[in-house]
User: What shape does this take?
Amino acid sequence: MTIGVFDSGVGGLTVLRAVHRRLPEVGTAYLGDTARVPYGTRSKETVTRYALNAARLLVERESLGALVVACNTASALALDALRDKLDVPVIGVVEPTAARAVSESKNGRIGIIGTPGTIHSGAYEREVRRLNPEAQTFARACPLFVPLAEEGWTSGDDEIARLIAERYLAPFREDGIDTLILGCTHYPLLEGIIEQTLPNVVLADAAEAVAAALELEPSARPEKTPLRRYYVTDVPKGFRLVAERFLGREIEELLEVDLG
Assistant: This one.
């Protein structure tokens, strides 16, 4: 069986990297809808249509044991439709990441960072409060973290990255949070500078949370020679360089597909 991982762009490759690390003998197929990224500015109907198109392509081309929706916007807006329409287990990023944050938090004060679309959806706040009605959440959009990650400007020694992180994250110190949800799959690449800015805060990383959830899936059975296949809907200039930075390894087979 193969685990499919879908994202609107390259950010979901951080989730795929965590899956490879935890389940090295399981085959994977990644699809990035790079022709239509970003999803964060789209309507729920459009995001749902795009997500279903992408998921169906993976299901048709691969023998999927599970599908990971590594896009925060699609997880927030289209997860129910995907679970209703597909015959494979579907795991989003919101539920396992919120669960990890709730389990890690000692004082019930949980910060959330993400793209504007994810933050405005309120998906993480709802899930945190479902798991712990007494929890307090503090959410802030950090849109400039995405280009920082894609440019590779992630070091604490980079003045621009340091100043942006301080501007975004400093208010959390006054909020008294002890746990921070990284509500965008780009953000694990910035963990070092986030930890430097908020040194006493535990980070709840979607990539690790989802990979841990997949370990519990009975469909995630090992293969002798695991598949590593990558699909995109467009190959923009510099894509391979950015993707390999996110993945931490070379991409051997990259296929361009049309979702219609």
Q: What stands out?
A: The beta strands are 2-7, 27-32, 64-69, 90-92, 109-114, 136-141, 179-183, 202-205, 228-232, 254-256.
